[in-house]
Amino acid sequence: MKAGMFHETRAIPGSRSPYELESNVAGLGIDESSLISILGKLHPEQKQSFRKGTRDFFTEDDRLFERWDERHIAQLQHEFLRFKNAMVLWTMHPWERDARLAKEALRKGQQAYGVLVEIACTRSSEELLGARRAYHSLFDHSIEEDVAVHIHGIERKLLVALVSSYRYEGPRVHEETARSEAKILHNAFKAADKTKPIEDEEVVRILTTRSKLHIKAISTHYKEFSSSDITEDLDTELLLKQTLQCLYTPETYFSTVLDSALKDGADETTREALTRVIVTEANNVDMKKIKEEYHQKYGVDLSEKISGVANGNYRDFLLTLVARGD
Amino acid sequence: MKAGMFHETRAIPGSRSPYELESNVAGLGIDESSLISILGKLHPEQKQSFRKGTRDFFTEDDRLFERWDERHIAQLQHEFLRFKNAMVLWTMHPWERDARLAKEALRKGQQAYGVLVEIACTRSSEELLGARRAYHSLFDHSIEEDVAVHIHGIERKLLVALVSSYRYEGPRVHEETARSEAKILHNAFKAADKTKPIEDEEVVRILTTRSKLHIKAISTHYKEFSSSDITEDLDTELLLKQTLQCLYTPETYFSTVLDSALKDGADETTREALTRVIVTEANNVDMKKIKEEYHQKYGVDLSEKISGVANGNYRDFLLTLVARGD
């Protein structure tokens, strides 16, 4: 292989340039059928660009191509994995799935704490408990043990208590208590000069132990003390805001997450939520609510939006899951 | 009824004086058979002394008798209740039993926090969870919710986390971690001038999330840093000491509790532990260990000691339960 060779190769008439190929791995997932046809027609020299060469062999100019190539192969592999991962996640028992998602979130650190909140607050008490059981057998630790060991920041108290919760799910709500706790939250959220709300013991107590219906009642009473919605007063306290949303309007939370994941230029952590949310919520009665909320909020059908952003098998699979509730 | 009447009554030859009767309701429970024979022989005037009279009717001297009488009737009722309560507790499903014991402990406040620790730390993860489930259906709240609402002192963090725990119960223990956490505990226990150990976040984290085997390993490694046993260094931190004992040597903990309950002059809260411990541990494989530990520590058989202190049906019932494991 000689320096300069790829310049000629790229110029072969009738063959696709790497830049054309790139457009076929754009978006989420792989457009398998067009990829098959393109790769099948590639010249041998072009095919070599899909394998990793010895870097030192190339001139500066070739390295440019090589870098494109490496990045491209990584992306190809990554996009192939998207379909595989979705299939694997879907096949897992929901408890194992949540246990593995929690473990992965702990591995990733702060940027993924939201996944812990999502698992702890949008599942039913029994589902969360199932995830804790699965976590024992998979990882030889309890989930709260790992959260407590790995998280050192101010989020620790909230997150440990959230994953340990086993909330009451009956209909009983004591309105007077809900009202007085709405006041407690309001005072804590508004007192920006004092303790941060996430470090306020009463805030953590209320959000981590009260039933979802009770929290809903709190959000209603909150309007007696504030002109804004309870989550609006938390715009700078993302984890608390997310906790509240997950607890009392999960469909709003999920729609927002899906919207971010489907946006142009989203980073990979944000992108990954697409698979996670669609797969975990597909069997859930709330999928219908999520779709309604998404449509209302963003003026487009969730399925349509997914069709526009995702490719091939990955897209088809997601669309099948999204359509399950219909 | 005339002033002075009881003086005569008490003097009726052949009848028992109230002071004789008193000896028949001494000890725990009621000696039903001798009570039947005594009460059956009482004169009508004496029997009246078992009913509550109108206080104002009596002279000062009669009131003395009346007070004895009221106290005595209360004690009688109380000792009758001991057998009834033991039977009722025994008949309950263990989950319901623990849920009700926890509720009762919360009602009683600080002096009974130990019962919460006992339930949270001597049961298996699944048993504790069962109690949490039962608590939902019985009291329309989660147990951690009620603990968090009712307890405001420095014990809150520890107790909320203890009742929320779902500890890993597999065999895997990471010795290096256990060793480093033994050091953390040692530093916290010895630094008496700083934060109280119960307020130390790391102490609470370790005691509330680690598996029992891990805590056992910690207690072994602790000896590398201290000449004393881990619980000896906690003699002024009763709740932490009890937590540790319940977690890694429940038989030691239960023997101590039984010994206190069976001591002369124990107060009622301490006394009550007798029924609780015997009833809850009767079906437990550890009852045998508790008996061995008790015998070794106090030089007398647990059954013998119970025979000496308790009466009648209550005694017979406890002895039957204690003998179940043999």
Could you please describe the fold and organization of this structure?
Two copies of one chain form a homodimer. In chain A, 69% of the residues lie in helices and 0% in strands. Chain A has 326 residues and is an all-alpha fold. The first copy, chain A, has four domains: 5-90, no CATH class; 96-159, Annexin V, domain 1, CATH 1.10.220.10; 167-248, Annexin (Annexin V, domain 1); 251-323, Orthogonal Bundle (Annexin V, domain 1), CATH 1.10.220. In chain A, helix 6 (94-108) packs across helix 8, helix 10 (156-164) runs parallel beside helix 12 and helix 15 (250-262) packs across helix 16 (268-281). Mean pLDDT of chain A is 83; it is low at 1-19 and 51-59. The A-B interface holds A 129, 132-133, 136-137, 140-142, 144-145, 148-149, 156, 160-161, 164-170, 172, 205, 208-211 and B 129, 132-133, 136-137, 140-142, 144-145, 148-149, 160-161, 164-170, 172, 201, 205, 208-211.
